[in-house]
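Risk register update: the risk of archive-format incompatibility is retired. Evidence:
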Amino acid sequence: MKTEKVSQIVGDSFPFSERGTLIAKQKTTEFIDANKENIFLYGATGRSGVCADANGTINLILDERPDLRNQFVGNIVDEHTVIATKPKPEGWGCTISSHLQNFILVYSATPQATVKFGDDPISDILTNAISLCLEGGVQTLKQITDLLNKHVPVVVVTKLRELAENCDPITKYPYLSAADFLMTIKKSIRSTLSTENAEKLVQTYFLDHALFNNKKGANSDAGTKQNLYDQFIKQFMENRVWEKLNFLTTEIKSLTVSVLNFSVFDPSDYAGYLTVLICKAKIIINVMRLK
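Archived output:
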């Protein structure tokens, strides 16, 4: 069986600044062109326009370059995608490029739609080639950690945000950027790092960065973000991921790491969800469905 090169593009779900959107679009285009043979996975639903988020940036590129549609696969889920694509105030006002025609649909094993963004691990499991991170919050941080842990190179891009809109209203600290966090840790490592010193580096970063909006408190998604962070820090420490930050780079290039065989999947990874790949174009990844 042929093993395809599968990259992933992840990042912020909050729009970048106008200048940041231009940079994100430029860097993403460079990344795509540097890896022309790859299949690209991304989250499909995004906010486009003058100020776009990570997924919205890709949608803008697809709208301008529909010839790329055969290389892109959008990840959609049965609960959150439906809500996200409804207009405000009923939904989140997100859109999907009309040129996107390949999807991974993750849906519940019950009649009730319950799959939320971040619940499905399929994109991380499929990714085996250099990937791109545009800033990103705690969910992105966990995704990048998963990739680095299996030696998949990740290109990070920072300074895309409008800082005035990306600060905690109480502490005035900027929100976590997954790209900035990991690059900060990488630059801080001068020699072999003990677990204790790695913990200190993480704690130092959060002395002047916020994980979530403290003003909204428990009634917001703070609990979800805290849970994702707890999962990240557990994996980061147990797997000594800081020793794999040599796979983290700011240089856009083409790299592939063979990390899995696409014909083999562990059903426990799907947490009871059903997954099917819907392809209108010819993309060589096995159609998967967990029965």
